[in-house]
Design a protein that fits this description.
By secondary structure, this protein is of the alpha+beta class. Helices cover about 60% and strands about 15% of the residues. It has one domain.
């Protein structure tokens, strides 16, 4: 849990997949509980769906699933940002053409 602000670390007691842990973080206790709950739910889901009892295997599978979600979100965001930049470039180009044709007035053609 990384926070770029200078905060003092605090400890939070959490339970993940039946194990009790004391986490030290600069984040709020509420945030630490939220992410811990997310991991707990993911591990429980995988244990049931994959019928896995070994805690280490469940933790690895959960980590891989969470990493997959994160990478897919980043890639989707990157593609969306690229599309937005392309649209902005086209719009800028169109506005530049309109300025060259008479200060923003539409160019009309006569037949």
């Amino acid at each position: 849990m990384i926070n770029r602000e200078d905060k003092s670390k605090q400890t939070t007691d959490v339970t993940i997949f039946g194990g009790d842990y004391v986490l030290s973080s600069q984040e709020s206790e509420d945030y630490t509980h939220r992410i811990s709950s997310f991991v707990d739910r993911k591990m429980s889901q995988i244990a049931v769906e994959q019928n896995i009892a070994d805690t280490t295997k469940v933790a690895i599978m959960a980590a891989l699933d969470i990493a997959d979600q994160l990478i897919r979100k980043r890639e989707t965001r990157s593609v969306s940002e690229d599309r937005a930049m392309e649209a902005l470039a086209r719009l800028t180009n169109c506005l530049g053409e309109n300025e060259q044709n008479g200060d923003g007035e539409e160019k009309t053609s006569t037949s």
